[in-house]
Amino acid sequence: MKLRSISLLLVIVVASAVLTCSDDDCPVCPAPFTKPAPYDGWVYTTADWNAASVYKIDAATGLLEDSIYRGTYDGGAGYVDVTSDGRYLVVTYTGDFDTVLGRFGPGYTCLLDAQTLEPIQDIPFKFTPIFDNERNLLLGFRNDSLYCFSVPGLEVVYADSIGSLWEPMLYEPDTLVYGAKSEAHDSVIAYNYLTRDIRGSWNIRNDAGVSVYLGKLDIHPDGSKLYFVAEERNSKFSIFGAWDLRFDMLVSSFPMASDHGDVRVSPSGKEVYVTDPGVAGFIFPSPGSIFVFDASDCNYITGISLYGYGTTPGYPLQGNWIAFTPNASHAFVSTGRVEKASGTMLMIDVFEKRIVHLTWPELGHVLYFVAVGPKR
Length: 376
Prior knowledge:
Layout: H1 2-20, E1 41-47, E2 53-58, E3 64-69, E4 77-82, E5 88-93, E6 97-98, E7 103-104, E8 108-113, E9 119-123, E10 128-132, E11 137-142, E12 145-150, E13 156-161, E14 165-171, E15 176-181, E16 187-192, E17 197-203, E18 212-219, E19 225-232, E20 238-244, E21 249-256, E22 263-265, E23 271-275, E24 289-294, E25 300-305, E26 317-324, E27 330-337, E28 345-349, E29 354-358, E30 367-374
Antiparallel strand pairs: 1-2, 1-30, 2-3, 4-5, 5-8, 6-7, 8-9, 10-11, 11-12, 12-13, 14-15, 15-16, 16-17, 18-19, 19-20, 20-21, 22-23, 23-24, 24-25, 26-27, 27-28, 28-29
């Protein structure tokens, strides 16, 4: 009887503490939610293939800080990536268009100081660049080859023929590069660039078991899922989906208008943002929105409308590439305009799910590639 009375007294004391203590000093209350401050870093983006320009935007304010222009190129600036310490920026340039061959030339890739945008060194051909931040390496994907360069010297450490990879991405915890095999369309591989061997392969299917043509890809921070946008075979429509890499199965899918948009998982691993610019010459209901999905089951959460930001009220912006700040305070989305070739950089509050800033109202060029890095 005495033990029962003591136990009851303890329950009353704890319950009283929960009801009366403040959030700051309560040992049992959950910590109060604190919205992260805007990220103190830079956002880098390049204009479309008609302007060889690189822009540096303040990630805390969304204001344009600096830009560079390197001569006149029919192709212009393309892919960008930045080291996690904010020291180096890499930019690809398509180069001049060869009217005889009917294609762009080899172009080049430039390593720059990420803070000043001063060029450091060029590589005489273009590739899709990815920095390995821990090992001072730059991975470059060109045609069917992977080049591994040292940074900042840009000496070739090795070159492997691994087949052409579409939209390669780095999963640093396992030193793996994921990418879609261009010749297979529906096949994704994981290549370990340190041991230089293939560690996994998956054939991506829709919910009817039919293979798809893969577009953009991203990996969950824990390495469990592959998120993708893909065109469905024998259909003019596309899907956003999640593939469980451990159980080799489709988790869920959602209809989209096209596979030309982007898909990015937030650093928290809780949400996935998807853009859908639609198909040129056609009118679909989904362009003009940024879609937000639950990363665990791909259930639709909400959308962010891109209508009302253009010069023509009836036409929305086209959402292109997405980049989150490392602290997940904001997402930056590059855009173009449906009715003409002009775009802006959107600064989106991740917690309020709304656009809080446009970097400029009328740039005159469509923006695509985006990277985010710290100030030094």
